[in-house]
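Report of the visiting student (M.T.), summer placement. My assignment was to run the structure pipeline on a short list of targets and document each run. The first record concerns Carbonic anhydrase.
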Amino acid sequence: SSQSPISINRHKGQRSQKFPNFLKLKIPTGGDILHGMLENDGYSFRVQIIGGTTDVKLTDGPLKGKTYSLRQFHFHFPCTEEITASEHSIEGQKYTAEAHFIFFNDKYSSFEAAENQPDGLVVLALLINIGDDCVFKGICQLKNITDNIIEARIN
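After the run finished, the structure tokens were exported:
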């Protein structure tokens, strides 16, 4: 089912006693490299992780003991005169950019096997405010380059 966009109202929210632990993002600190495919999705670019599971994991909190592996990430960011590009909002305020990290449940053999299951996917969204010294200017240039690219392997 579709769950976007979401508008979070902090005053109506309550900390759930069912999930006393916070969500944990586990990122390996060794010299491991993620291999991915840079793709143009028609709106932005995304990076698809190549291979099965990765060492970047999401666990705990509302995931109830399940572990999810990073499969893809992409950004919503302004490369035009548009001021806000976030899909979601807090207290009705949209943000200038948003990053989505897509994880799939490790109990399934692949992302494709998980994507249509009710517990198959988790999306971690980060809302980003951009100042005058915008790191996204480089990403906008990358987006302009990828306008003419369908796929590119990255290591």
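Residues 136-146 form the longest helix (11 residues). The mean pLDDT is 76. I thank the supervising group for their guidance throughout the placement.
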